[in-house]
């Protein structure tokens, strides 16, 4: 999917950012707390594929189920997608009783202007030495 620039050679997929619990979108399309999600995800393993980098969590307080966004779309994960870019794992889905479900079939295309607000996040970006900069064209 579409990639968002996070600064200093850091990129993330738009839906991975949008569906992360701590990330929220301002009226102008600026995403806040993306670096918090990246930091948390760097140590979080996906329940489906067991790889690190899972930033999408079950929205039930205290639940430890973490997934990559693409893994959450796999039928065998048995998760329920809710409105407001929230996800609920199969263990807690019965409690939700089909309220606020994402319309079926869901569309995850994001055509509007969305970007990572680097103003608030720039303090976390480590500066890159000029000798470490590589420019690739094409």
UniProtKB/TrEMBL annotation:
UniProt domain PHD-type: residue ranges: 1-93
Keyword Lyase: no
Pfam families attached to this UniProt entry: zf-HC5HC2H
PANTHER family hit by this protein: HISTONE-LYSINE N-METHYLTRANSFERASE TRITHORAX, HISTONE-LYSINE-N-METHYLTRANSFERASE 2 KMT2 FAMILY MEMBER
Organism (species): Daphnia pulex
Protein's UniProt name: PHD-type domain-containing protein
InterPro entries in the cross-refs: EPHD, Znf_RING/FYVE/PHD
Highest taxon of the lineage: Eukaryota
Biological classification of the source: Eukaryota, Metazoa, Ecdysozoa, Arthropoda, Crustacea
Entry keyword annotation includes Transport: no
GO MF, one annotated term: zinc ion binding
């Amino acid at each position: 999917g579409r990639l968002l620039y996070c600064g200093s050679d850091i990129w993330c997929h738009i839906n991975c950012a949008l569906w992360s619990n701590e990330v929220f979108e301002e009226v102008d399309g600026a995403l806040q707390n993306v670096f918090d999600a990246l930091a948390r995800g760097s140590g979080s393993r996906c329940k489906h594929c067991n790889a690190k980098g899972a930033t999408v969590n079950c929205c039930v307080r205290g639940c430890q189920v973490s997934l990559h966004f693409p893994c959450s779309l796999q039928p065998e994960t048995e998760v329920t997608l809710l409105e407001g870019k929230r996800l609920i794992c199969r263990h807690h889905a019965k409690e939700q009783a089909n309220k606020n479900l994402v319309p079926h079939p869901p569309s995850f295309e994001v055509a509007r202007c969305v970007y990572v607000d680097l103003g608030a996040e720039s303090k976390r970006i480590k500066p890159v030495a000029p000798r470490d900069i590589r420019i690739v064209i094409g």
